[in-house]
Amino acid sequence: MPLFMSLFQSLLMKKITVEMKNDAVVTGILQTVDHHLNLYLENVETREQQDQIHLEAAKFIFVRGSTIRYIHLCASDVDVFVLEDTTRRDIRQETDI
Amino acid sequence: MSEKHEIATSSIQKEPAYTEAIRQPLDTVRLALGERVYVKLRGERELRGKLHGFDQHMNILLSDAEETITHIKFDPVTNEEITSKTTKTSEMIFVRGDLVILVSIPRRAA
User: Fold this and answer.
1) Would you report the helix, strand and coil content of chain A in percent, each value rounded to 5?
2) Distance (Å, rounded) from C-alpha A66 to C-alpha B28?
3) How big is the A-B interface in CB pairs under 8 Å?
4) pTM of structure
5) CA distance readout (Å), B36 to A96, B32, B33, B63, B66
6) Which of A64, A80, A94 to probe by mutation at the B interface, max B CB count within 10 Å?
7) CATH assignment of B2-104?
8) What pLDDT digit, counting tens, does each position of A48-95 carry?
9) Which residues pair with A20 in a beta bridge?
10) For a pLDDT cut of 70, what percent of chain B falls above it?
11) pLDDT tens across B16-65, in order?
12) Using an 8 Å Cβ cutoff, are B39 and B103 in contact?
């Protein structure tokens, strides 16, 4: 499984904040993720912003992975040492051909 | 030519120290894991933070990140560019790889 897909798999049912390339910001509970990093969020809240696309009524959102700019996570949800080790291993596998 | 190449790679495999050396561009980033890095992004955005993970797409995970966005406005009266900066912080941020222009790592790690 790709590194970041497995990271987000470990964050299922956790609250994440997604900042999209159109500057829309949504916070919600992560339900599913796939290898494109498409996300499905529930209990969505949007941040009030000027000239924001209106998403206030949306409670369930599917986000296409390619439109994501950032995903803000809770630091306590991520085991950084495991992630660093996995990164080292995965990159070596990719480059050692 | 191909024979020479095979000899070169087999000698690298025999010597374990070489596997830690920089052979691929991504190795430089790998050696910066756990260090603070600078990331330049599309859309006049910059990030500074501690690198904890990345993949071959340059998807990146940073902690204690500071984002700087530079707004550039052109003043037609004075013919000057007016720049202003806003900064935001995030305790843990995932950055999608297609935005990344460059990653600068500390000299120590390189």
Assistant:
1) 30, 35, 35
2) 26
3) 81
4) 0.82
5) 26, 8, 8, 9, 11
6) A80
7) 2.30.30.100
8) 665 666 777 788 999 999 999 999 999 999 999 999 999 999 887 776
9) A68
10) 78
11) 444 466 778 888 899 899 999 999 999 999 999 999 999 999 999 999 99
12) yes
What does the buried/exposed string (b/e) look like for B49-69 if buried means 16 or more CB atoms within 10 Å of the residue's CB?
bbbbbbbeebbbbbbebebee
Identity at B75, one-letter amino acid code: D
Tell me the residue length of chain B: 110
Which residue in A6, A22, A15 sits closest to B61, CA to CA?
Answer: A6
| Residue B14, token pair as written in the block | 């025999």
Amino acid at B80: E
What is the C-alpha to C-alpha distance for residues B28 and B3, in angstroms, rounded to an integer?
A: 28
Domain ranges for chain B: 2-104
Write down the pLDDT at residue A14. Answer: 95
Asked if A59 is an interface residue toward chain B (Cβ–Cβ < 8 A), one would say no
Residues of chain A with Cβ-Cβ distance to B99 below 8 Å are: 69
Domains contained in chain A, CATH given:
3-96 (2.30.30.100)
Quote the ipTM score.
0.89
